[in-house]
């Protein structure tokens, strides 16, 4: 059964790569957001209910922003820097982490703030970006090194989506943290 699913998945990636990656990202973002909300429901003192609207926003950002962006980004990287030589892989990882990542993280916070109807759509970006970027480096540098060394190009977005399940839990955790009055005061100085 697993081999049949794998074969169907790989056929779909070859015939409809963008659509398949969209579905993969939507699935993993849905699972990650649901997991994060479940953890919050059972372990936070105030036991928040599931928030389907918040979940829909996160899934929308992941599937409509990340999936197509990464699909074309990895195609570009693979065309520009082909092969798996050490220097090539390191170049790809550094390009990915220091070119695409800053943009996608900023888009994550700004787009969700817009969808949430916040007045200051840059507030979370100002307060959470550096911490998020540092956590991102600790997680994604090794993940992307494995990606570019060992995986064929057609599996890159799906692999990143599966690793994103873990990362999105971290990102959603950071996103849900309240910005304290002290943080706001320090930022305004």
TrEMBL record:
Task: Show the PANTHER family listed in the entry.
Answer: MPV17-LIKE PROTEIN (PTHR11266:SF85), PEROXISOMAL MEMBRANE PROTEIN 2, PXMP2 MPV17 (PTHR11266)
The entry's protein name is Mpv17-like protein
Q: Pfam families, per this entry? A: Mpv17_PMP22
How does the protein associate with the membrane? Multi-pass membrane protein
Annotated transmembrane regions: 54-74, 95-115, 157-174
Query: Could you tell me the keywords of this UniProt record?
Result: Membrane, Transmembrane, Transmembrane helix
Q: Which domain of life is it from?
A: Eukaryota
The record's listing under InterPro entries reads: Mpv17_PMP22
Q: Which family does it belong to?
A: Belongs to the peroxisomal membrane protein PXMP2/4 family.
Q: Which GO terms describe its cellular component?
A: membrane; mitochondrion
Q: Where in the cell is it found?
A: Membrane
Q: What is the lineage of its organism?
A: Eukaryota, Metazoa, Ecdysozoa, Arthropoda, Hexapoda
